[in-house]
Amino acid sequence: MRSAPKPKKSATHVTDQTITSVSRESRVFRPSAEFQRQANLGSLAAYKKLYAESVNSPEKFWKRQAEEQLVWRKPFKTVMKGAMPDTKWFVGGKLNVAENCIDRHLGTARENKAAIIFEGEPGDVRTMTYKQLHLHVCRLAHVFENMGLVAGDRVAIYLPMVPEAMITMLACARIGAIHTVVFGGFSPEALKDRINDCKAKLVVTADGGWRRGKIIELKPNVDKALEGTPSVQTVLVLKRTANPINMKEGRDVWWHDAWEGAPNQHKAKAFDSENPLFILYTSGSTGKPKGVLHTSAGYLLGAKLSSHYVFDLKETDRYFCSADIGWITGHSYVVYGLLSNGATVFIYEGAPNQPEPDRFWRMIDRHSLTILYTAPTAIRAFMRWGDNYVLRHRLDSLRLLGSVGEPINPEAWMWYHTMIGKKRCPIVDTWWQTETGAITITPLPGATPLKPGSATLPFFGIAAKIVDDKGKEAPRNSGGKLVITKPWPSMLRTLWGDDARFKQAYFSEFPGTYFTGDGARQDKDGYFWIVGRIDDVLNVSGHRIGTAEIESALVSHPSVAEAAAVGKPDDLKGQALVVFVTLKSGHEASEALKESLRAHVGKEIGSLAKPDQVRFAASLPKTRSGKIMRRILKDIAAGTQVKGDTSTLEDFSVVASLQQEE
Ligand code: PRX
């Protein structure tokens, strides 16, 4: 397993240290001649040539791609306008994103091809062709219009992983409404904050979804959230589980009732290239989650082009991405990138170990799936569950594997390669972010020699660099900060309602350059090795969690005076969440209080943010100016010696007493 990150003196320092552990990795896996022969891009030389054009002549490159890949109602006049971060793309052009994902395939051989294959956790299967998907989206677009929704209105989506989740996103896109998908694991409180931040008019939810044999109570969560959301006028409720729920008169409408009689053809309007498509909330290093805004043409082009090359999509593929649509991976690589390419997308509602830990392998054989895109945390769980669950199945339909969300440790990479890919399938380790919209650093499977643990080389149009704290390019093999120096079409446009925070968060450290928040290094071949976040954002099981959100949830508990959240290396989750809390006078530390604090964070944010460990402290280590020294707490949480400069500590005895506790 990955060795523990060493102490953080400065961002660059931590990167240097961690690199030693992965720099022993020297294996190289070249694409097989057989894979190369059939690949959409079959040589490293071809990648290098196209990449050079994409960064040296971006206008020429993106003009050609936008014309070839997208269906325009009105051609654009200008490819890109303005400097980063305010670059506008494909100015003057008009298109409809839903039309680009569905209507373009009608009247072609794809019309009766499966767009979606769905398997519910109880084992129910539904297949929907492109033609059927079109009818569903058209009907829902009418339902939305009948409710009075117009272009620019916000719609919150809080649904299980069922085809209707995709249909809802596409119906929003069709009428120009902006969707914000909230992962079903978020609490009513988190849902309320997101609805209020973007002032959603409509919430689309379900009477539940299946997970580990139980029903996730989505509707009661919506009811609770809506006690404090004045903007919401209507709740559209899908029947999935037949779980009894309350329907509020005048506000709540059943999907199947609204649907009744809605026409199944809908004339889609064309929207400007820069028309907002969706808002997706993600954690930052300070404050509440940020509403990342993506717009239409540039985002769609990034998602479509990367899907084509990174997943080497072919007409016959049956592609499975295990991400929920509540995350950016579900947006770009379940919905927009795949459907715009006319692919068959397989989606699964439930848990990977329900009823047994071989559920994924069973489904791959059952549906002859050819591509699997999942997260290292899942791969490590599969490893732990044991090879026997895998060996029961053939897995011979698979031809390509993908990884996303966090660094994949070489041991997990090798297991994925051998046990799942049978040494036959290339692995694309794709680095990207909610903000980048599309895959940003990645191998192309027919072109790029793979090194386990490296996301390899930048995708087309991505000017990625490693810089030191002053913004100077770092020499090869020394760590630094990962930045992108030129604009790219699928980049975020702003943070919803807070453009100043957008500029501050991403463009203030190195003006004119996008700072990713990640530490990384580039090896002698120019390969990128991502170390992880170097800001106060944690990556727990591939989910981004801001320490500030956890801390503010904790201090809202009546017993807590102060709190600090840090990550601790974890074999399964990548990082586990450890919180240090000091109590208000008169409150006693106890096991029961630890449980109550965990439950409180679960209630405030969602169970994905529940701390793995709660540690009580008499006081927290601070600088003389009163700032909590998190790097010291990180060492304490990891059980390693406190290293680095401690001269700014106000009181060293605090550290000694923290080490004694637990
Ligand atoms: O730290 C990087 C990590 O996930 C962060 C982005 O999180 P989010 O916006 O939730 O998007 C996740 C899915 C795209 C990054 O800043 N990350 C993502 N992919 C990788 C990764 N770290 C290493 N290797 C990856 N392949």
Automatic annotation (TrEMBL):
Mg(2+) binds at residues 555, 557, 560. Belongs to the ATP-dependent AMP-binding enzyme family. The keyword Acetylation applies. Acetylated. Deacetylation by the SIR2-homolog deacetylase activates the enzyme. Transmembrane segments: none annotated. Its EC number is 6.2.1.1. Residues 110-488 form the AMP-dependent synthetase/ligase domain. GO terms for biological process: acetyl-CoA biosynthetic process from acetate. NCBIfam families: Ac_CoA_lig_AcsA (TIGR02188), PRK00174.1 (NF001208). This is Acetyl-coenzyme A synthetase. Keywords: Acetylation, ATP-binding, Ligase, Magnesium, Metal-binding, Nucleotide-binding. The modification N6-acetyllysine is found at residue 627. Pfam families: ACAS_N, AMP-binding, AMP-binding_C. It comes from Nibricoccus aquaticus. ATP binds at residues 405-407, 429-434, 518, 533, 544. The keyword Magnesium applies. CoA binds at residues 211-214, 329, 353, 541. It comes from the Bacteria.
